């Protein structure tokens, strides 16, 4: 991105330097090795964004599937195909804008390097698509988050002392104590001449109407302050519900460990139970004529995170609602032409 | 290998200080800078004087070390104690110097850090005229990220008077802090 000189199309049309995938680092000392090979890179709030750029999407007309995949991680505000963006042959590049940063974070983490219709996706943040206002809000949100996180120290400290693992970390918690983390007083500075700029997207990318998915749980941003870092033991601050879940088995000592096979069996049993009840429910409720076997339910994916799971169920329910209302209207419209299903029914026999 | 968080960070700092390998130094510094993103680590990082370590690295010749250190400062400077520490350790000057780096990431981190360090008390330090003038030019940059950031800086952290003054200044002098290269 030539910052000087060429004042042309700017960063939008061309590939940005920070999107180039760096080679993974192979020379880390053992204790610094993560679970996945990663490049040496420092993330700051400037590099993060609600906008995700998805490269390497096979050109098979799978936009719908792609957006559905990403919508699992949170509400999507907009999505575009970037026709002008340089891409590998037979692949497309998409831009997805999430409603909040935390969802984009999780989506990036889960979808990067994921195989999608036989091709590996490369997902990266695309802050160069932000408007000035969006950049401003992103920086403000980080400010709020830090203010909240550093204020919450006190109550975290309490929980830690009660817990079994009392470390030497107490002393500095008290030094960082209870301050109102941001003494920044914006009223001292002029805010009146703010211009909210709503820049257009580059031509050549055809835009879609925004998806109306339910809101992603806002609290996920606060509770899972994990940001892709490995979290060494002892410091993690799970939400209260999780603490309770975790401490109960911990009291039983030896029961804490559950073999993988048992775990899988348990999960299978739960799934079967769920399916059974779903089938039963459908049979009781439906007064419509059944034609052919019932479609299998959309498999419920466990995303290892409470708030993610709740938003996923929210999305699923909403989708179901929308689908049902559509099918209702389409059935009602033809109205008198009830002969059609009858014909089909006969064919089935 | 079961290390607590503090012990782990301590091991990183020790390796950083002991190692002769430039590569390992970069990796460890990147590690520390990424840990500085998470407020849970702030107490430990202060205890290990990592903010000082970051500030020290700003005067290195190795551009990568400067980029990572600046990123680390950008990540931890919002916390009140860290902010006070950086301001008292006269960290603002080396951060302002980073505005003339040829590395865009370094410049971006420096701009954001200056915003986050700005308080009614510190604004004299963080928004002197040359910085405002520099932001004026950044706001015209072809890089959307940089121009957005500079625009926020000018609109939210400078007074209209300051901006006006800087505009007059740049009319008379052609030289200033150069824009970052690709």
UniProtKB/TrEMBL annotation, chain A:
Keywords: mRNA processing, mRNA splicing, RNA-binding, Spliceosome. This is RNA-binding protein 48. GO terms for cellular component: nucleoplasm; spliceosomal complex. It comes from the Eukaryota. GO terms for biological process: mRNA processing; RNA splicing. GO terms for molecular function: RNA binding. SUPFAM superfamilies: RNA-binding domain, RBD (SSF54928). As a component of the minor spliceosome, involved in the splicing of U12-type introns in pre-mRNAs. It comes from Callipepla squamata. Residues 195-281, 329-349 are annotated as: Disordered. Residues 195-210, 217-229 have a biased composition (Polar residues). InterPro entries: RBD_domain_sf, RBM48, RBM48_RRM. Belongs to the RBM48 family. The keyword Nucleotide-binding does not apply.
UniProtKB/TrEMBL annotation, chain B:
Pfam families: Arm (PF00514). It comes from the Eukaryota. Coiled coil: none annotated. This is Armadillo repeat-containing domain-containing protein. It comes from Callipepla squamata. The lineage of its organism: Eukaryota, Metazoa, Chordata, Craniata, Vertebrata.
């Amino acid at each position: 991105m030539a910052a000087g000189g060429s004042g042309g199309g700017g960063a939008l049309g061309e590939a940005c330097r920070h999107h180039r995938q760096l080679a993974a680092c192979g020379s880390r000392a053992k204790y610094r090795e993560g679970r996945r090979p990663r490049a040496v890179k420092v993330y700051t709030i400037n590099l993060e964004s609600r906008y995700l750029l998805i490269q390497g999407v096979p050109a098979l007309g799978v936009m719908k599937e792609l957006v559905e995949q990403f919508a699992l991680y949170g509400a999507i505000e907009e999505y575009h195909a970037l026709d002008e963006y340089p891409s590998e042959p037979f692949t497309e590049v998409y831009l997805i804008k999430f409603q909040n940063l935390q969802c984009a974070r999780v989506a990036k983490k889960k979808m990067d390097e994921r195989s999608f219709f036989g091709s590996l996706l490369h997902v990266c943040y695309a802050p160069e698509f932000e408007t000035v206002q969006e950049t401003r809000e992103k920086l403000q949100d980080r400010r709020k988050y830090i203010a909240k996180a550093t204020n919450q120290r006190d109550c975290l400290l309490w929980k830690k002392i009660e817990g079994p693992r009392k470390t030497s970390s107490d002393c500095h918690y008290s030094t960082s104590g209870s301050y109102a983390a941001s003494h920044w007083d914006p009223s001292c500075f002029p805010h009146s001449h703010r211009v909210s700029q709503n820049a257009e997207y580059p031509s050549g990318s055809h835009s879609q109407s925004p998806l109306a998915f339910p809101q992603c749980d806002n609290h996920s941003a606060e509770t899972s302050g994990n940001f892709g870092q490995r979290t060494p033991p002892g410091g993690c601050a799970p939400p209260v519900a999780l603490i309770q879940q975790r401490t109960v088995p911990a009291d039983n000592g030896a029961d804490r460990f559950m073999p993988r096979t048992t775990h899988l069996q348990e999960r299978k049993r739960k799934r079967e139970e769920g399916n059974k009840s779903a089938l039963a429910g459908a049979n009781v409720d439906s007064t419509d004529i059944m034609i052919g076997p019932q479609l299998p339910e959309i498999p419920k994916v466990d995303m290892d995170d409470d708030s993610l799971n709740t938003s996923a169920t929210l999305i699923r329910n909403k989708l179901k609602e929308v689908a049902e209302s559509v099918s209702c209207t389409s059935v009602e419209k033809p109205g008198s032409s009830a002969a059609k299903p009858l014909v089909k029914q006969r064919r089935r026999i | 290998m079961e290390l607590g968080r503090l012990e782990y960070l301590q091991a990183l700092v020790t390796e950083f200080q002991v190692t002769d390998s430039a590569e390992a130094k970069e990796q460890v510094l990147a590690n520390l800078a990424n840990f500085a993103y998470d407020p849970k680590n702030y107490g430990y990082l202060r205890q290990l004087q990592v903010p000082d370590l970051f500030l020290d690295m700003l005067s290195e010749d190795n551009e990568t070390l400067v980029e990572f250190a600046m990123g680390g400062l950008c990540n931890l400077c919002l916390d009140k104690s860290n902010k006070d520490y950086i301001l008292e350790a006269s960290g603002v000057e080396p951060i302002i110097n980073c505005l003339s780096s040829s590395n865009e990431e370094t410049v971006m981190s420096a701009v954001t850090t200056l915003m986050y360090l700005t308080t009614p008390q510190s604004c004299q330090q963080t928004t002197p005229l040359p910085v405002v003038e520099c932001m004026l030019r950044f706001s015209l940059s072809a890089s959307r990220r940089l121009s957005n950031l500079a625009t926020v800086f000018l609109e939210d952290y400078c007074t209209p008077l300051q901006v006006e003054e800087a505009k007059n200044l740049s009319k008379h002098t052609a030289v200033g802090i150069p824009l970052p290269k690709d």
